[in-house]
Amino acid sequence: METKTVNIKINNSDYQVPQGVTILDAAKRVGIDIPTLCYCEDVSKNASCAVCVVEVKNARSLIRSCVTCVNEGMEITTNSTHVREARKTNVELILANHPKDCLSCLRNQNCELQEIAAELGVKETRFVRTKKLEPLDETSPSIIRDPNKCILCGRCIAVCSEVQTVYAIGLSNRGIQSKVSTYMEKGLGNVACTNCGQCALVCPTGAIVERDETDKVFDDLLNPEKYVVVQTAPAIRVGIGEAMGLAPGSLVTGQMVAGLRRLGFDKVFDTQFTADLTIIEEGHELIRRLTHKGTLPMITSCSPGWIKFAEHFFPNSLDHLSTCKSPQQMFGSVAKTYYAAKIGVDPRKIVVVSVMPCTAKKYEARRPEMMGAFEYWKERKGWSDDDAFYDIDYVLTTRELARMFKESGVRFAALPSEEFDSPLGESTGAAVIFGATGGVMEAALRTAYEVVTGTPLPDINFMPARGMEGIKEAEVDLDGTKIKVAVAHTLKNARKLLEQIEKGESPYAFIEIMTCPGGCLGGGGQPIPTTWNIRKMRADSIYAEDAHKPLRKSHENPQVQALYKEFLKEPLGEVSHHLLHTHYKKRGLFVWQQNGEGKNADQHAEKETN
User: Fold this and answer.
1) 450 among known catalytic residues
2) Is the pLDDT of residue 12 over 80?
3) Domain ranges in the chain?
């Protein structure tokens, strides 16, 4: 079908553009950038900042280009004196209430407000502060909210409500008293926030940032009494290069390993080792549920944001979740039991640092259920609760690791390619693809199909699980038993599948759910900006690494095989049950309704939501 076009003028030049596009998009198509702050492609376009204004002939006032569509014969001016002055004035008004702490802000040199102020030549503001200073919201283990840096763009509200359907935050009050807040000012840590960090990913300033743990990690790296190891998630290898100035989607696995060694880690391991381990445990759990009439569909449990979403919004469906811990948490359990015994180091002296694309992993690491290694040793050595420790000590996002590299003077682009340490650094291609939506499903089927049928999947590249569609489905024949499977990313799509389950209408046996758009490669701790085009480039790199791995099925990992032979004995066995599996809990549900009023939708759930 032929696209209809309209004839317009932009800055006295004639153009043909598709009918129905906005002025902002039309200008971009012809090579003209119009500055924006509140606009965020595919997320928010509420026209609140008025930075994108342009002149349109015969219009009575300046027009906001992000929400105004082009018309036949429209004459637009994007750079007149009137337009430039209006934009500067609007930015000055925003800056009047903005802290002047750019040099110490986590978003310094990666801040849209800072960038636009420089582009427009704003060197000072003529206006005085009109808002009182607000305290920081530090209630969340994952995210810090600074209301004083908020410019009321509404992006965080839009991504939380429209992409994730969580409604953890909303706009309260009116006029000069307007602010972004949580239900009853409880703080993100005490409402139905899933810690996904998508709000931080779209925030144009430093109003929402990850909880920074880099100084604590530096301290332990310099402590001779500590044995500090690091694990890196699959999505880090396609994100950290970008954060260090390389092209989006750059695959830098070897350089990442080299950089971590230069930071001083005693061992550099790979979360992909326990991604392979997760597949073996989860695959056998699925087979057991299929053959013993267990609860179906079984849903993956690798994404901590999704887990917390289920605990808040679908507490009656928790038995559908796989009992497997995530690869991050499995790694901590194995590192502080099997590996600690193997190298003869007291697990109380081992510090496990995770590098994750995900802010929710910070929350997951502090769940009280995630102390499996301590419970293991407590039973065997008689340790007291004073000796207690978590399986994971610190979780760094991709952005935090980049800051550590820069602070340490690591010249990332000049680093050689180095290999992970053994034994917890060995992985297969199945583990790599955990970083993309559909990857866990594909990895699980590569193993489960072979375990059940005794033969490999007809095509190891299970294409129905790949791609960026919100919900994907397929049918798999397991030796005469046909099962339907589904893949979803974003909590909005997860909600659709869970509503199906609660109505008793789900046709699936196995479902993969990832919290963030695109999966982990689009996580809330990844480099800013993260667009759909960038997500695709990261996914392409992940699948390229999978294709070049000599081993591409989790059950073929020789070090995981050794782990079972020497320690775990068998999938779903007694040791695995205590170290690699967990349980979940019902939680309260404090959220914002669409009209902006708060509600507690589950009066019978626990009040304590963390």
Assistant:
1) no
2) yes
3) 5-95, 226-580
